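Reply to dn_fold:

You asked what the input looked like. This is it:
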Amino acid sequence: FIYVTHDQEEALSMSDTVVVMDKGKIQQIGTPEDIYNEPVNAFVADFIGESNIVDAIMLDDYLVTFGGVKFKCLDKGFDKNEFVEAVVRPEDIIIKEPGANASLTGKVTSVTFKGVHFEILVDVGGFIWMIQTIRDDIKVGDVIGMHIEPDAIHIMKRSEYSGEFGDYSSFSDEMDHISDASYNWEEENEEE
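and this is what came back:
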């Protein structure tokens, strides 16, 4: 049977095959694992779970660069020096001491307890990365290292969705606006 939902967790947990659509157009068809781990474009990557999506250059098969750093990856078949996008899921980033086998270094701008994990936003050269971790010792203002294994990086060709998703700068601004909201209880009760 066909089940239509906008709930990503529901789609992944209930389906043998997932079809991701945008504006009536099919973006990707695949198993829940394929959709999550091998998204075809930034829309799918962002729609099915949180994603760090960065502009990158595919230097060669199995070698990509982003954030000024070269990374080994599992992807091949791209042109040399092709401008692409790299996807790294927040749960796949390993927090390290800066310089201790850490590929990227950044400053923690936000730490939010989510029940099962902490959601950490890290500014790396102006690009805001999201990390999901069970570590409870990371604080706002800390400078941390980030290590990314080759199997945690997924390379996508650029698409019409490129540049729209993956940088959590706007996410952190949205959270700031939510915390600015206030409710005036006294005004509410004066009207009664």
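Helices lie at 8-14, 32-37, 42-47, 169-180, 185-190.
Hope that clears it up.
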